[in-house]
Write a structure and sequence with these properties.
470 residues, four-stranded antiparallel β-sheet, mainly alpha, 14 helices
Length: 470
């Protein structure tokens, strides 16, 4: 994986996240206070109860104030954890809605050339995974990474005055653990990316096969397609197993280190109590806080694994979103003035970007007069379809000009050009929508009567009437 891609992914995600300051403010305020109350202060006041018991307190009334503090903290946690989760959820829903819309718009602005080299199913898979990856990453950051850091900071603040030796040992072991974890997971990232790419190819093949199912059946090629899809899914399995084997080797090393922290914590806690006559409550805090940190540090393995998957899933769409569409509208477009349909192609040169040494058109000139009918004849690949795409500005002309009624199409908005040209593609295409919506697609303001008249003119009304809903 390109090392810059995770940074680009984070940059894109942050651009969307910062648009919602209200929910970010709720999260920024509630997460530290909830972490402090539930994981730090409740054990802290429980330790004070133990210290009172150890010093001979025998009346229940001596503990009332501590009981009420703990009850208040528990009530705060119960109520505001729900508020916190709701804030996270609402932010993610808002961001994901905006992402879906912007990814769709970005793909709509891509050129015909962009789509000719990609499977539609692959793009669908990449878009879905990119948006879903944000939710997983944000959840991981809020509920795992940020919570771990806050716990760590609060524990150091509470315990350093009571047991500085333990805090120093904790710092050293944690830094070693985090360094080894980061190194291990960084080496796994290319395998995760390869797994995600294999999954995208399999999804693309599945979508391609479903779209062309009648062709497959007509040629009786079901065994061929099943075999090809089997190869794709086998590739996913092979890449997943390679990732699993490397990950498991790292798990053994990290498990040993994290378990050693638990043993060290117990030994240090007992030693501090015996040597320095530290209160029993401090030992309780050391063991409790260490158990809390140990569980969260052990979760780091899953956290890094999830982050690797997030960046693997987002990788391909991040690259697409980081590139400007090859065809863009001019900053100050001219209003479309086409009335007659006089078309001039002047000294046009064109070559495919990946084959500059094989130009398709060299100083090509053509003049089509208003109302004139022109047939383009040539062998397959000679440029007939390409010429129509250039006229529609689905691709741009690197040299020369295309004029409609004397107006250069490169100075017009793409949508304005295409609204003035009626285009029937080589293959009939239908959206999975009603026939009425498909007929109206060429003119969105057409009335129902005009749609029915168009169907009659095309003799389509004859079969439309026979459909279940007419």
């Amino acid at each position: 994986m390109n090392t810059s891609t995770p940074k680009q992914t984070l940059r894109i995600y942050w651009q969307y996240t910062k648009r919602h300051p209200k929910w970010l403010a709720f999260i920024a305020v509630l997460l530290p206070t909830l972490t402090l109350s539930e994981y730090i202060l409740i054990p802290f006041f429980t330790a004070q109860i133990l210290d009172k018991l150890a010093t001979g307190a025998s009346q229940l009334s001596q503990f009332y104030s501590l009981f009420w503090i703990i009850i208040a903290l528990e009530i705060y946690a119960v109520i505001f954890w729900r508020v916190f989760v709701s804030s996270v959820w609402k932010l993610e829903i808002s961001v994901m809605r905006e992402m879906r819309q912007d990814v769709f718009k970005h793909l709509m602005n891509e050129s015909s050339r962009f789509y000719s080299g990609r499977f539609g199913g692959a793009l669908v898979s990449q878009a879905v995974k990119f948006v879903g990856a944000f939710e997983r990453l944000f959840d991981t950051f809020v509920f795992n990474i940020a919570t771990l850091i806050l716990n760590y900071v609060f524990i150091i603040i509470i315990l350093f005055p009571k047991a500085p030796q333990y805090v120093i040992a904790l710092l050293i072991i944690t830094l070693i653990f985090a360094f080894l974890m980061a190194r291990a997971k960084k080496s796994e990232r290319p395998l995760v990316t390869a797994e995600a790419q294999a999954d995208t190819l399999a999804t693309a093949h599945l979508a391609d096969s479903m779209t062309n199912m009648m062709t497959i059946k007509t040629f009786a090629n079901e065994p061929l397609e099943a075999s090809l899809y089997g190869q794709k899914t086998n590739d996913i399995s092979d890449r997943s197993l390679a990732y699993m084997k490397l990950s498991m080797r790292h798990e053994y090393l990290l498990a040993g280190l994290s378990r050693s922290l638990n043993v060290i914590a117990i030994v240090v806690a007992v030693w501090v109590v015996l040597k320095y006559k530290t209160p029993l409550g401090t030992m309780f805090l050391i063991v409790n806080y260490t158990g809390n940190l140990l569980r969260r540090m052990w979760d780091l393995s899953g956290i890094f694994k999830n982050i690797n998957r997030v960046f693997g899933d987002a990788h391909e769409m991040t690259e697409i979103l980081s590139q400007e569409p090859s065809i863009k509208d001019p900053d100050n477009p001219e209003p479309a003035g086409a009335k007659k349909g006089d078309i001039k192609i002047i000294d046009m040169c064109y070559y495919y970007p990946d084959q500059p040494e094989k130009p398709l058109f060299i100083n090509f000139n053509l003049h089509i007069y208003p109302g004139e009918k022109v047939g383009l004849v040539g062998h397959s690949g000679s440029g007939k379809t390409t010429l129509t795409k250039l006229l529609l500005r689905l691709m741009d002309v690197p040299e020369g000009h295309i004029l409609i009624d004397g107006q250069d199409i490169s100075k017009m908005r793409q949508a304005d050009i295409r609204k003035n040209i009626a285009y029937v593609p080589q293959e009939p295409l239908l959206f999975h929508r009603s026939i009425r919506e498909n007929i109206r697609y060429g003119r969105l303001d057409a009335t129902d009567e005009e749609i029915e008249e168009a169907a009659r003119m095309a003799h389509a009304d004859e079969f439309i009437k026979e459909l279940p809903q007419g």
